[in-house]
Amino acid sequence: MEDISNSPFRSVCKQFGADLVVSEFVSSEGLIRDAEKSRVKLTFEETERPVAIQIFGHNVESMRKAAELAEEAQPDLIDLNFGCPVRKVVKKGAGAALLKEIPRMLEIAGAVVRATRLPVTVKTRLGWDPASQPIVTLAEQLQDVGITAIAIHARTAVQLYGGQVDWRLIGEVKRNSRMHIPVFGNGDITNALVAKERMDQTGVDGLMIGRAAIGNPWIFREIRSYFLSGYIPPQPSIKERISTLQDHFRKLISYAGERRALLEFRKFYSGYFRGIPDMKPFRMRLVTATTIGEVEEILGEILDVGFQISDPGSRIPYL
Predict the structure, then answer these.
(1) 13 classed as catalytic
(2) Which fold has domain 238-305?
(3) How far is Cα 188 from Cα 280, in angstroms, rounded to an integer?
(4) First and final CA of the chain: distance in angstroms?
(5) pTM above 0.90, yes or no
(6) In whole angstroms, what is the distance from residue 257 CA to residue 60 CA?
(7) Which residue out of 22, 84, 213, 245 is catalytically annotated?
(8) How far is CA 221 from the centre of its chain?
(9) Could you report the per-residue pLDDT of 58-73, keeping only the tens digit for each?
């Protein structure tokens, strides 16, 4: 979620019902070297709380120091990324690469726990590949060194973000009688019905949603409503979509500046207008727009067209 789960994105997700938000992952090496790109990732608004700062790295001492620096930003918890499968991270021995070095992973986790007074959590995966999926034992080990919660993505590292998710091992972690810390599940939670299915299947304490929230902060409202009342609210109207998009875009401009905001926001347009027919020409213009005024003009045109979204919502008993 690098260049996605920054403060503007998190703020919008909180607005629509996310309970806990997590920063972009922050390089431990960049942080201890006072790199501006790493430092800015520590910033958050008070309205985002509870908020976690997530750090990653391979060196034990660097991760310990990075945790101390992250604590100075006064988040509510520190999260350790032991699950990112992206090549540039893995080749440095960080993220999901630590699933091939479990002793080092545990050493890092223990060192960070001892270095901070904040709760320390972990995000990881089932294992490195189908032949190595140690998550049931690994979760116990992380708990034993002081981790206070664990979020598990239902894929192996070699799967990246493709192929089928497998939540069965997440269920085994949760049902393990030795586990007493909260267990969260992650991976292809795309709507409220899928969320309920995963909760029923595994009994996890909560769900972590990443890619499905890109340009779709309403997913939190949908899931919350369904869990509380059995009612799935209607899809947002075109007016609400554009109003939320504009709010998000303006927050990003204030956070990152006009030029960077224009570039970074391009990844959100598809999500904000997903499922609306005949929107492609407008999306193509938005992703090539070079000024804020041009973006606003295109959004105004979309409103003038008056796209209709026919979805009254539905009541499906939550049993």
Answers:
(1) no
(2) 1.10.1200
(3) 24
(4) 33
(5) yes
(6) 35
(7) 84
(8) 16
(9) 999 999 999 999 999 9
